[in-house]
Amino acid sequence: MYQVDRAHRAAGKVIRQNSILLESGEELEYLTYPSLEKTGIVRHLITTRLGGVSEGDYASMNLSFARGDREENVRENYRRIGRVLGCLPENMTASQQTHTTNIRRVMSEDKGKGVTRPLDYQDVDGLMTDESGIALVTYYADCVPLLFVDPIHKAIGAAHSGWRGTVGRMGQCMVKAMGEAFGTRPEDLYAAIGPSICQDCYEVSEDVSEEFLGMEAETEELRRELLLSGRYRTGYDGGLPKIAEPGKRPDKFQLDLWLANYLILRQAGILMKKIDITDICTCHNSAYLFSHRASHGKRGNMAAFIMLG
Fold this sequence. Notes:
The chain has helices at 34-37, 71-85, 163-167, 170-182, 206-210, 213-217, 220-228, 257-267, 292-295; strands at 16-21, 27-32, 42-47, 92-94, 103-105, 126-129, 135-140, 144-150, 155-161, 190-193, 203-205, 244-246, 252-255, 275-277, 302-308.
């Protein structure tokens, strides 16, 4: 099992490493959230770089057809993930991400889109469904994976939230969309914030940090609640955790997308005890997870998969 460099969290590990031994003798590693598994209605995983057949900058579990990898390698990677999930690639449906907050309801007729057959939609950063046997697929290489499970109405969602999506409150958009489509109530939802770039690694310009000032100002009580729970580290100055901290260079800031997305989910009404925040940074672990920043753009994509079944 790969030795992961985990960020400091007082509450311990909330995401689990798993592996299977392939017929070739290779080990395929993937990540899961026990809290989502305990709902009893979903199968899910977040891929790592280990266990695929892609080579070079894409090594080895690249799930993107759009970054220059050989198509036959990507297809084999999907087949391998399908064996873990118990799902054929023909039953997977992919997003088409452009840093929006657009969400698509996935139906049976969408099976295979973006994986085994062409997409007929674009600008979709979130997927949701209440139909079993469809694996929702979203892609990452530093941005934040968000996974949602409604065990009452048997519905799921998956979303991609980079800094633009986070400013647009993608998590809140998903809660609202699932409520309108399936009758989902925020207090019934379980949510997971997946591996992505951490605050220590994510340096941004002042204009980007300013996009989060309003969110930080209106969430003091939620940040205090989180700190007192023992589930999150303090701010750099020892006080409340902050979304944007002064950077290591003049006019730069360190952005905490994990905290920002947590606060958005809490504001949307999801209970604190039902939100899991990752402690694994893609940039710190770029040999294990694809990181756009660490690789200077020379990389493949990891993916999150979630399905009812």
